[in-house]
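Appendix B. One record, verbatim.
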Amino acid sequence: MGWAKKGCELIFAGKRAADHAIPQDQINAIIVEKTLQGKVVTRLKGGDPMIFGRGGEEAAELAEAGVPFEIVPGISSTIAGPAYAGIPVTHRDHCSQLTIFTGHEDPTKGETSLDFDQLAKTPGTKVFVMGVSRIRGICEEFIKGGASAQTPMALTRWATTGKHQTIEGTIETIPDIVEKTGFKSPAVAVIGDVVKERAKINWFEMKPLFGKRIVVTRTREQAGALSKQLHQLGADVIELPTIRIEHPQDKVEFAQMVSDSHTYDWLVFTSPNGVEKFFDAFYATYEDARSLGGCRIAAIGPSTEAKIREYRFAVDLLPQKFVAEGLIEAFKNESIEHQKILWIKAEETRNVIYDGLMAMGAIVDSCLAYRTVPETEDPTGAAKQLREEGADLITFTSGSTVENFFEMGIDWPEGCEAASIGPVTSKTLEANGRKPAAEAVDHNIPGLVEAIVKHFE
């Protein structure tokens, strides 16, 4: 969803056992209908669409309707799941053959299309999906067919995600382990000696934030950077935007200030959002970057600086402390008396920068580039998930994310802690009765991630 362009129509067609958001025949009809309307349609599937993914059926419907289509192969969960559990499905020391089947059928029914006697005798690794609810029957059929009851076996659920979980046993013991642990689908099962390799190469579950459920409260557009870093460290990330960015109330005044930006001595940016809104408006007015003139540029921190550099502009002033007070301190080394400064900011921010620069004799104009408003939608069900499943940590990157989170009326999960990007955000948290368990030393996203990892150590 995060990769979809703005304005893209999103249709949820997810499936779980006995819980399909949309029946398959209706999915087929929707794909054909939307495509015949002249739209570019992406049918996004987990794993590979042609391995137990019904991609062939959907493609056949399109072919019958005369609709051109393209199939993009994926990485099947039957291979990816075991790999994330540290289990190679083939290995020179164990096997050179792989058999994949579906456990969706009841192995005890007379009309099953699976030949378990043959499967039990087939050498090499056996991998199956959609069989957790029938695991005892499948294992019994394998043993009945001649497979050794001591053959190693493992099940991995929600592989590659923060919910990843693996259990190990043998064909004989795994059904009891499933029942004892309450292990549920969706899962991939692996049967064979390759399971022994997991003891040596179980890499994903060793990550520093593995098993931790962490909530990201940034805007939908900005959540990705923090979510990606947390996910790469093994966390189960819930993206729950509490604010969204909108245009300023006075668009005309904003546009005029951007147009006149070349008349200023300094441009001061205090957020990546301000940078993006400013330059979007700037290039809507001017075609040449040189139209900005000779003004110098200041940024409050590395994230804001990085956003400025995306527009091919260098930053002339960056404070040592990435807060408003730090920026004012950095300006004390500049001669700005009687100089004109344009501060590009959100509508509701502290006046520390304005007051500080004015006190140094500068002429400061506030350019209101955007405003933050409470996020009222929950299309991904993140709020519902947080209420039902709880979390280990909730991250906050600004005072507005804090205030709007508490306005959402979500009860603070039991045992959950808070992490803050800096002292200003921490004060807002404390004002709402929550002292942060972790606070970034460097007040940016990498600093916040570092503080979270250190906290969980």
